[in-house]
């Protein structure tokens, strides 16, 4: 058979897909078969699987719970608001009126730049409308609504109208395509441990335990797990949620980035070194 008679990529893929699947499981089998035959790469397969799963995933599975939301109170003075914005590095913040169930709107961090030209900045004047969605909404529907409305954040409410949490467009997309790095993330290939502005350290979850021990003078074992993320997962027994805090052998770990499947970034606070005066007193 000459090269002209060989089936093309499209013809081979079409041949696979013409095996009309009866359910989602069969469809996934066909897609995995296409991957095994090198008709699509692993990234494409993962994205398709994520897109299919999004139709069955509710916002409650990916949202930031109410207790872990970073919010700004409408009556907070600017000298308290700005450190919160710098520390959390979010681009949007729900603004509440004393109670997290009373969301007045959303503040865009970039609007605080107006302080340079408007010293009498009035927070109420710069609030954007907040979008409210029910806990039962599916991610594929929410993504479509985000695209139409151009919103990047929604407040999740329960059946009684109380705030259950918040979800961002990034949370939704990460369920489909995996972790999305932004300008506040660091080069995970070369800079797994980085000093934060707060004096703590941002650590990628895939940092090897051996490298972590060397950086922080710790002695965690790497016999059961190779990475810091594995250490945290072993300690908790489950995938922690964003902002969850735990202490392991004197080291404080706070989850900065995680989804329902993976742990990405941790904020690490090493133990404070003993003060010279305390050492002398002990001696």
How does this model look, in words?
The chain is of the alpha+beta class. It has 9 helices and 12 strands. The protein has helices spanning 9-17, 24-36, 42-54, 78-88, 139-149, 169-177, 209-216, 228-236, 276-282; strands at 64-65, 72-73, 92-96, 103-108, 132-134, 153-157, 163-168, 193-195, 201-204, 245-248, 251-258, 263-269. The strands form 3 sheets. It has a 5-stranded antiparallel beta sheet with strand order 8-9-12-11-10, with helices on one face. It is globular, with a radius of gyration of 24 Å. The chain starts with 8 loop residues before the first helix and ends with a helix. The model is unreliable at 186-190 and 274-283 (pLDDT under 50).
Strand order of the largest sheet: 8-9-12-11-10
Order of helices and strands: HHHEEHEEEHEEHEEHHEEEH
Give the uncertain stretches in residue-range form.
Answer: 186-190, 274-283
Strand content: 15-25%
Q: Whole-Å distance between the termini?
A: 88 Å
- Helix/strand-derived category reads alpha+beta
How much helical structure, as a percent, in the residues?
25-40%
Rg, rounded, reads 24 Å
Number of beta-strand segments:
12
Task: Choose one word for the global shape.
Answer: globular
Mean pLDDT: 78
Count of discrete alpha- or pi-helical segments spanning 4 or more residues: 9
- Major sheet size, sense and barrel closure: 5 strands, antiparallel
Name some characteristics of this structure.
about 280 residues, five-stranded antiparallel β-sheet, 12 strands, 9 helices, about 20% strand, single chain, alpha+beta
């Amino acid at each position: 058979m000459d090269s002209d008679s060989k089936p093309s990529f499209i013809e081979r893929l079409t041949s696979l897909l013409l095996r009309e699947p009866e359910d989602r499981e069969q469809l996934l089998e066909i897609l995995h078969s296409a991957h095994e035959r090198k008709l699509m790469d692993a990234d494409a397969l993962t994205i398709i699987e994520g897109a299919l799963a999004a139709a069955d995933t509710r916002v409650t599975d990916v949202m930031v719970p109410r207790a872990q939301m970073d919010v700004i109170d409408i009556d907070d003075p600017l000298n308290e608001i700005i450190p919160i914005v710098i520390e959390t590095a979010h681009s949007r913040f729900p603004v509440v009126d004393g109670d997290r169930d009373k969301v007045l709107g959303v503040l865009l961090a970039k609007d605080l730049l107006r302080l340079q030209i408007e010293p009498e900045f009035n927070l109420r004047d710069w609030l954007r409308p907040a979008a409210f969605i029910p806990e039962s909404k599916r991610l594929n529907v929410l993504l479509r609504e985000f695209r139409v409305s151009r919103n990047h954040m929604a407040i999740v409410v329960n059946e009684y109208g109380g705030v259950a949490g918040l979800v961002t467009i990034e949370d939704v997309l990460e369920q489909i395509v995996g972790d999305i790095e932004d300008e506040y993330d660091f080069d995970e290939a070369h800079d797994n441990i980085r000093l934060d502005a707060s004096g703590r350290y941002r650590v990628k979850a895939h940092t090897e335990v051996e490298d972590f021990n060397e950086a922080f003078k710790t002695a965690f074992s790497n016999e059961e797990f190779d990475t810091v993320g594995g250490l945290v997962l072993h300690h908790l027994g489950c995938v922690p949620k964003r902002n969850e805090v735990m202490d392991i052998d004197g080291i404080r770990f706070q989850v900065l980035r995680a989804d329902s499947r993976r742990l990405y970034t941790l904020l690490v606070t090493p133990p404070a070194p003993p003060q010279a005066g305390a050492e002398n007193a002990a001696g």
